[in-house]
Amino acid sequence: MIGVAKEPLLHFLLAGGVLFGVHTWLNRAAENSEPSKARQVHVGAADVQWLAETWARQWRRPPTREELRGLVTDYLNEQLLAREARAIGLDDDDAVVRRRLAQKLTFMIDGTLRHAEPSENELQQFYEKHPERFRTDARISFTHIYFSPERRSNAHSDATDALTLLVKMDAEQPDGELGDRLLIAREFREETEQAISGALGSEFARTVFSLRPGIWSGPVKSEYGLHLVRITNLRTARLLPFPEARAYVKDEWRREQEKSAKETYAAELRKKYDVVVDETAGSLLAPVAPVASVDAANPGPAKP
Description:
- The chain contains 11 helices and 4 strands, in the order ααααααβαβααββαα.
- The protein is α+β, with helices and mostly antiparallel strands and 304 residues long.
- Among the domains are: 120-135 and 239-304, no CATH class; 136-235, Chitinase A, domain 3 (Roll).
- A 4-stranded antiparallel β-sheet has the order 2-1-4-3.
- Helix 5 crosses helix 10, helix 6 (120-129) packs across helix 10 (242-272) and helix 8 packs across helix 9 (202-208).
């Protein structure tokens, strides 16, 4: 008997039984007074259709009657378990559950907003208000020759001498081997400043975009050393004309609408609930932006 009493499984079962009994006793009065409708777990034709369509998308065929019966049964059991878990407070302070519920509501809001279609006038106004969003990136193509400060006693002098030679020869490419080896390509084609910055450093990227195309220039300093650079092509940033940018404008307009709606909804929820924030957290909380009128209790999206 002593050995049995020490079994962890027995302790778990006893504790579970006590917990269930206490929960049942505490909630019996509330359950008896609760309207029967509030305790309903409804499974309808729309649920069955959704389950069948979900199965068909995954398995590329409709479910058999037995498979559909299993799906519906599992769905009902899931609803019952979820309802009971909430009833006994298992969702309290659960980060995973909290984030999933917030994510689900966000998806519902997004789904409703995607049905909105902007007018041509709205798109034109948005385009004019945010021209920086519809500019192409400046792009550059160039060849460079690297001089290593670690391998040379005076890399700057060597680079300057090589530049004089290249200018005198008016050569697009040197005939012989000039410079040192570097595990980066000697030639870059149609790259943005961000890409060049990632490869050779932000200082180098800013400098090469200011160089005159068609001639050898330098020495230009990078994170690795010194370079002679010849720009072969430079395309400056430009604002896309509205007809050319229209698809991008529409996408950006929708993203802006979704962001605004979420901020508005969140602001209304702050008004709806009694939010208590201590001094430390309050200083880190973003202020509520001015919002349009929104019914926080009913954002509008239907249940998917």
